[in-house]
Design a protein that fits this description.
five-stranded mixed beta sheet, elongated, Immunoglobulin-like
């Protein structure tokens, strides 16, 4: 405030119910409410040492909304007939901030003859998220094909506020597995502490289509019959690569055999390969 400029500050009339400007102060026991924001100021006490006031806001209004839903895994999930797929369903409360915490009913819409578990989430406030697991099971007689599964969540107090996200389950009845190495022959390093690697790639397909998410076990047997096991999971292209380490002091020369096994649910397939070390 500039004491030399009468227009450098404003005086708010805290008692607008009167027409007088001689009573602008909000005396103890009185309240002022801003009609635009809903803010209410109440003077509790006032004196030469200062004033004590209480400031409150009107409660925000509540507008309910359908939740946001995401699932994991995404994309195509490969499995065998008679197996189960576990989905993690994450639900985000999209209600306005004036709403109370909400629980959600989570389930799945599955093909005829299939089954799915259901769950009720913990109570979450607007803007927060929670997750539930849903188990989807297909019968042992399920033909090989791609199937759509709808994972959904609805407000437990207002079931029409629902959101669904589709996942895809691919059921396979056979697996084709192939194994290869990046070289047919490797030369051991001259330096004693140097390591070289054989890159072993396993490819898993079903009816010519790449199978992602297959568990791969690779057994490498050296000329002395020592077996080393390496593990990996196929990517969306149906391939998994592992590296087999060899050193000058510990790796014998000769022929190494490779046995790769791919597994999806109860289905397995195997393939072999070999390489030499000089």
């Amino acid at each position: 405030m500039n004491v030399n400029d009468a227009n450098s500050s404003d005086l708010l009339d805290m008692t607008p119910a009167t027409t007088s400007w001689s009573d602008p102060a909000l005396v103890a026991g009185q309240s002022f409410t801003d009609p635009l924001s809903g803010l209410t100021i109440t003077t509790l006490s006032a004196g030469t040492g200062g004033a004590t006031v209480n400031v409150t806001f009107q409660p925000s209004s509540c507008t309910r909304a359908a939740p946001a839903v995401t699932i994991a895994p995404t994309g195509t999930v490969w499995t065998s007939a008679g197996s189960s797929t576990n989905y993690s369903v994450t639900v985000t409360n999209k209600d306005s901030c004036g709403c109370a915490a909400t629980t959600y009913d989570v389930g799945a819409a599955v093909p005829s003859g299939w089954s799915a578990s259901s769950a009720r989430t913990a109570s979450v406030v607007p803007g927060s998220s929670t997750s539930s697991s849903i188990l989807v099971t297909n019968p042992a007689s399920t033909p090989a094909a791609f199937y759509t599964v709808g994972l959904d969540a609805s407000n437990s107090s207002a079931s029409t506020l629902q959101t669904a996200v589709n996942g895809t389950v691919a059921v396979v009845t056979s697996l084709a597995v192939a194994a290869s190495t990046d070289k047919s022959s490797y030369a051991l390093p001259r330096q004693k502490n140097t390591t070289i690697y054989a890159l072993i790639t396993t490819t898993v397909t079903s009816s010519g289509a790449p199978v992602g998410g297959a568990a791969v076990n690779v057994n490498v047997t050296d000329p002395n019959k020592k077996v080393t096991t390496l593990t990996a999971t196929t990517n969306a292209s149906g391939t998994a690569a592992v590296s087999y380490a060899m050193k000058q002091r510990t790796s014998p020369t000769g022929t190494y055999s490779v046995s790769s096994k791919g597994t999806i649910g109860s289905m397995t397939g195997t393939a072999t390969a070999s390489f030499t070390v000089q």
